[in-house]
Write a structure and sequence with these properties.
heterodimer; A: 273 residues; alpha+beta; Thrombin, subunit H; 12 strands; 40% helix; globular; B: 161 residues; mainly alpha
Chain lengths: 273, 161
């Protein structure tokens, strides 16, 4: 009886082994195909990865987060005295500006009433905070703690107090993923404020500048010109601040974004009215 | 005693895989090289497990890590999944030749496999999803591979003993 049993076990193991390998390859092929065709199964997998895997990976890498925070706090503490001096000077400067701003605000309100104008062209969907970021290797992605339950949808724009940060590329029930402007695979259509030159900007790969990939009529903007979204591609709302022209070459120009991508804590998800 | 029995080299290497995966998918602004280093370490560990502790369960491991890396780093499934599975197929096909190599030759093959795997992932990301080839990233990976390769081999040899 014993040899027969052994043979059976061997056959079963070999069968399971082959079945596993064939299943893995079939599943991989199906997943790659579904991922290419944006099938809903992929949303399920993404949902699981952001709701289950991300917290686990954060927990495992907690010691490095703690060390990183400690170094950050030490650096902040070191520059405290210097920052204090700068802030005192800034308070004096801002007080002068405040008086001027109040005057301008009053004037602005009167002019708006005269023109029957609305405040802005944006609808705020949700203010969300950052959970974690995956912007070192491959894509420049960040995860937020709000998803389609908060009415966030794909292709909505993400902004902060300084300007455009990126766009939503994926939403799950409670999380959403934003691709940053500095990603080389994201293009935004922009225009310069002074000359109205239309162009397309993409990330340059060094995470610092945005570089023009297309300029309408090959007209280059001036150095220091401010660049805003043009709204022509219907993805980003019009007139969102993007950055300042920092370098102009013969066929392309570089823009320094207003947003400090290394210090993002909260984002506002907005859409056009 | 029982616990140390349970912690055989294969389990230890799998723990290293989990830790390096977790750290590589969480960016640290102050230490961006930490991510890249652990990303390379993950690949080193995975190749080491395949070379020295091959078992068919590794196909499932490759499937899970491939999908997770693709979703968390690229937001599209493909590049890592295909690369990891191709590596396993490569090993199954060339196993009979690899076991004949000397220890120095195997270390050389190990390093070449690592670099080719990292390049292959970039190539696939470019081919399937049109991700731009990032030369800075490739150079960074190569430099990190050069730095951590020997210490990692040393660590793994210690774990084996």
């Amino acid at each position: 009886m014993a040899p027969k049993f052994h043979i059976k076990v061997f056959q079963l193991t070999s069968f399971i082994k082959n079945l596993t390998i064939v299943s893995v390859f079939t599943l991989s092929f199906i997943l790659v195909f579904f991922s290419k065709s944006d099938y809903y199964v992929i949303y399920g997998i993404k949902n699981i990865s952001s709701s289950l895997v991300v917290p686990v990976t954060r927990f495992i890498s907690a010691p490095i987060y703690a060390f990183s925070n400690l170094v950050d706090e030490y650096n902040q503490f070191k520059s405290l005295k210097f920052e204090n001096k700068i802030l005192q000077e800034e308070i004096i400067r801002l007080k002068k500006w405040q008086t001027l701003a109040i005057q301008n605000s009053r004037e602005n309100n009167v002019l708006k009433k005269l023109l029957n104008a609305t405040d802005n062209n944006l609808t705020l969907i949700k203010t969300a905070s950052l959970i974690n970021r995956n912007d070192t290797i491959y894509s420049k992605l960040i995860n937020l703690n709000a998803g389609y339950e908060d009415k966030i949808k794909k292709n909505m724009s993400a902004i902060n107090e300084r300007g455009l940060v990126g766009k939503v590329i994926d939403t799950t029930a409670k999380n959403s993923r934003v691709i940053l402007l500095t990603d080389p695979n994201l293009s935004i259509s922009v225009k310069s404020i002074s000359d109205g030159i239309f162009s397309l900007l993409t990330g340059s790969g060094d995470s610092k500048y945005l570089v023009s990939s297309f300029v309408k009529d090959n007209k280059m903007p001036r150095l220091g010109d401010i660049v805003v979204t043009s709204g022509t591609a219907q993805i980003f709302p019009v007139d969102l601040l993007v950055g300042k022209v920092a370098k102009v070459d013969k066929n392309r120009f570089f823009v320094l974004p207003f947003v400090d991508f290394e210090n993002i804590d909260y984002l506002q998800i907005v859409t056009s009215k | 005693m029982e616990f140390s029995k349970f912690l055989n080299p294969s389990v230890k290497l799998n723990i290293i895989l989990i830790i390096s995966f977790s750290i590589s998918v969480n960016s640290f602004i102050l230490f961006p090289s930490v991510n890249n280093s652990f990303y390379v370490l993950f690949h080193l560990t995975f190749i080491y497990i395949i070379f020295y502790y091959y078992h068919y369960y590794l196909f499932v491991v490759a499937l899970v890590y491939g999908i997770l890396f693709d979703i968390l780093l690229l937001n599209n499934i493909g590049a890592h999944l295909i690369s990891f599975l191709s590596l396993l197929i490569f090993f199954v096909l060339f196993k009979k030749y690899l076991i004949r190599l000397s220890s120095y030759q195997i270390i050389f093959v190990y390093f070449i496999t690592l670099v080719v795997l990292l390049l292959f992932e970039q190539f696939l990301a470019n081919l399937i999803y049109d991700y731009k080839f990032n030369v800075f990233l490739i150079l960074n990976f190569f430099l990190i591979s050069l730095i951590i390769f020997i210490p990692t081999i040393f660590l793994f040899t210690k774990l084996d003993k």
